[in-house]
Amino acid sequence: MIILKTREQIEQMHKAGKLLAAIHREIAGMIRPGITTSAIDRFAEQYMLKHGATPEQKGYNGYQFATCASVNDVICHGFPSDRPLEDGDIVTIDMVVNLNGWLADSAWSYAVGNVKPEAQQLMDVTKESMYKGIEQAVIGNRIGDVAHAIQTYAEGFGYGVVKEFVGHGIGQEMHEEPQVPHYGPAGKGPRLKEGMVFTIEPMLNTGTWQSKLDADGWTARTKDGGLSAQYEHTIAILPEGPLILTQQ
């Protein structure tokens, strides 16, 4: 069942989203060769706690961290670690903020130092594909219209669109209906209505879209070892158009 939110509830989620966006802005200034994703994880959790929020991911199905940190060939759900980031890496930091019982979810890919043009283009296209999807998130359209816009744009650059992991509804629970794939035909899936709130979070790979799972049961990597990038916003469907709740 898709849970429609009131304007007041969306405003509560917007407050969580603004806090999450502030954390990403801080992280952007921290990213450099030599920093560890463990340090970023500690910073994000402390920032949330200082502002009256909690990391919703921590403890979720046994997950031990406030953030996910996915480096280079890791698609998503990577564990923060004490391995220093190196010049040329790309790293995606993903987190869910719980503020007064309402959630917001956003992931962002960052370049570490000087990245190769191949990596920069992957990040640029992934980000733009997310916004192409958001443009389609209007009342009367369908989830498939969002998905098709993302896939069409991404595949135009030859990238693989990850299929195993998708966007999702969100509210007082991290994962609600509907599921929001980033591939598929236009005109299919649930019709978008006022009050729907969900994430759009494309993951693009330089090679195949297929993934493999590490022995830890969480870390998903590209099957061919290629690079992966991800950008994610939480959005609300309103009569005036999509409202990005995690806008930086």
TrEMBL record:
Catalytic activity as recorded in UniProt: Release of N-terminal amino acids, preferentially methionine, from peptides and arylamides
Q: Which cofactor does it need?
A: Co(2+); Zn(2+); Mn(2+); Fe(2+)
Q: Per its UniProt record, what CDD domains does this chain match?
A: MetAP1
Keyword Hydrolase listed: yes
Keywords (alphabetical) are:
Aminopeptidase, Hydrolase, Metal-binding, Protease
Which positions bind a divalent metal cation 2?
D105, H168, E201, E232
Q: Which PROSITE patterns match?
A: MAP_1 (PS00680)
| Superkingdom classification of source | Bacteria
Gene3D superfamilies with a match to the protein in the record: Creatinase/methionine aminopeptidase superfamily
GO MF annotations, alphabetized: initiator methionyl aminopeptidase activity
What Pfam families does the entry give? Peptidase_M24
Q: Which residues bind substrate?
A: H77, H175
Q: What is its EC number?
A: 3.4.11.18
- Record-annotated Peptidase M24 domain positions: 11-237
The entry's free-text remark on the cofactor is:
Binds 2 divalent metal cations per subunit. Has a high-affinity and a low affinity metal-binding site. The true nature of the physiological cofactor is under debate. The enzyme is active with cobalt, zinc, manganese or divalent iron ions. Most likely, methionine aminopeptidases function as mononuclear Fe(2+)-metalloproteases under physiological conditions, and the catalytically relevant metal-binding site has been assigned to the histidine-containing high-affinity site.
Q: Which residues bind a divalent metal cation 1?
A: D94, D105, E232
**SUBUNIT field:** Monomer.
Report the function annotation for this chain. Answer: Removes the N-terminal methionine from nascent proteins. The N-terminal methionine is often cleaved when the second residue in the primary sequence is small and uncharged (Met-Ala-, Cys, Gly, Pro, Ser, Thr, or Val). Requires deformylation of the N(alpha)-formylated initiator methionine before it can be hydrolyzed.
The record's comment on protein family reads: Belongs to the peptidase M24A family. Methionine aminopeptidase type 1 subfamily.
Q: From the Swiss-Prot or TrEMBL record, give the protein name.
A: Methionine aminopeptidase
UniProt source species: Paenibacillus aurantiacus
* Lineage of the organism: Bacteria, Bacillati, Bacillota, Bacilli, Bacillales
